[in-house]
Amino acid sequence: MSFQYRRARRPFDEEPENHERWLISYSDFITLLFAFFVVMYAISSVNIGKYRIFSDALGEALGGQGANVKPNTEVLNQPIPNPNLKKRQEMMRQERASLTKLAQDLQSTMAPLVKEGKVRVTQNSRGVSVEINASVLFDPAEARLTPESQEALTAVAEVLKNDPHAIQVEGHTDDQPVRNIYPSNWELSSMRAATVVRLFIESGVAPTRLTAVGHASNHPVASNEDPIGRARNRRVAITILSTLPDTETEIPTEPAGPAPQ
């Protein structure tokens, strides 16, 4: 009887050589590449809070100190700065301050007539308005300035001539028909506005800043049923227009669809 000695093979002797060890390095490279693009995305975003979150998460994944840094909730809650909005707010503040100063100067210039209730100075989003009763400026149904009104309007022109704002002069009448050289209140109100504009030009106000408008009796501030109301409606309004830009709204070219039922 013969015995054949067979050496027992160990398990690792049966395993072939691993030729795919490069996959481990490749997977590490892909992980780092993914982390790189995550960081690039976070940097390109305007939200600083998201960037902090991504940065901390990346530090944790790579075993860095970022894993121990907590997100700054104060940064996350802060609004995103808008340079255009801040610039517009500052421009609005300066414009309001400029118009307020102009209104105060006009109020001081017309102080005697303001106390008598014949001149009213107001300020709103459109600008500063100086409303002058027509009896201060003209004889009844006339468009020629009286000597006293020329002096008052010249003082107003002195305040306005070095100011950059556009000026709109509006003539208003009551609803009583005129019986003279003017065919209607349209011509009378327009001529009164033009007369004030002409005096402003002669006093040094740039013509390009001026506009004359006649409204006839279409914008009353009181009832035309009694003499007191009609006297209030006969007036000239000098409006110093604000330079703040208007907000534009795009009008859709296609009609909107039917409302949902």
What would you note in describing this structure?
With 261 residues, the protein is an alpha+beta fold. It is built from 10 helices and 5 strands; from the N terminus they run ααααααββααβαβαβ. The chain has a 5-stranded mixed sheet with strand order 1-2-5-3-4. The longest helix is centred in the middle third of the chain and has 27 residues, at 83-109. It starts with 10 loop residues before the first helix and ends in a 20-residue tail after the last strand.
How would you concisely characterize the structure shown here?
The chain has 261 residues and is α+β, with helices and mostly antiparallel strands.
How do the strands and helices of this protein lay out in sequence?
Layout: H1 11-14, H2 22-44, H3 48-61, H4 73-77, H5 83-109, H6 111-115, E1 119-124, E2 127-133, H7 134-137, H8 147-160, E3 167-172, H9 185-202, E4 210-214, H10 227-233, E5 235-241
Parallel strand pairs: 3-4
Antiparallel strand pairs: 1-2, 2-5, 3-5
Helix pairs in contact: 2-3, 5-8
Structural class by helix and strand composition: alpha+beta
Straight-line distance between termini: 101 Å
| Low-confidence region ranges | none
Strand content: 5-15%
Average pLDDT over all residues: 81
What strand line-up does the widest sheet have? 1-2-5-3-4
Count of runs of 4 or more consecutive helical residues = 10
Please estimate the helix content.
40-55%
Cα-atom Rg, whole angstroms? Answer: 40 Å
The geometry reads as rod-shaped
The tally of strands reads: 5
Oligomer state of the chains in this structure: single chain
Reading the helices and strands in chain order gives: HHHHHHEEHHEHEHE
Q: Report the sheet with the most strands, covering strand number, pairing sense and barrel closure.
A: 5 strands, mixed
